[in-house]
Design goal:
Helices cover about 75% and strands about 0% of the residues. It has eight helices and no strands.
């Protein structure tokens, strides 16, 4: 099962000939899995090509297909569709802020119970 999941989630161009043949055989035996594979590839395109504006159409297609597991995933994105769409469409990210926050948390864990706010501040400024 993990092997098939790996085949479905990887780019088709990265599969070997044997893997492509095995995947084609599996998908031919299970039409529901074939439909799931098509939707997974569609979502992969949205992710890699930053096509967030096409997300509502993808969610509607998945909802119409009633694929177990995938439908719930797609419908949960509707809870905050604007944020998900922006995250899949914009090139901006919060990597710098996340990095700084993680560094501060690491220092705080290292000094836990041994230092006050003053020393923590000095440690943050020194690094």
């Amino acid at each position: 099962m993990q092997q098939v999941t790996g085949w479905l989630t990887r780019r088709p161009a990265t599969l070997s000939e044997d893997e492509r043949a095995a995947l084609k055989d599996v998908l031919a035996r299970c039409p529901e899995l074939d439909a799931t594979a098509e939707q997974v590839r569609g979502f992969g395109e949205i992710l890699t090509r930053r096509l967030g504006t096409t997300l509502p159409a993808w969610i509607d297609a998945v909802d119409g297909s009633q694929l177990p597991g995938l439908t719930d995933f797609a419908l949960h994105m509707l809870r905050d569709l604007d944020a998900v769409t922006a995250g899949l469409a914009l090139h901006w990210n919060s990597d710098g802020a996340e990095c700084a926050a993680n560094r501060i948390k690491k220092i705080r864990r290292q000094l836990h119970g041994r230092a006050g706010f003053k020393l923590l501040g000095k440690m943050i400024l020194l690094q």
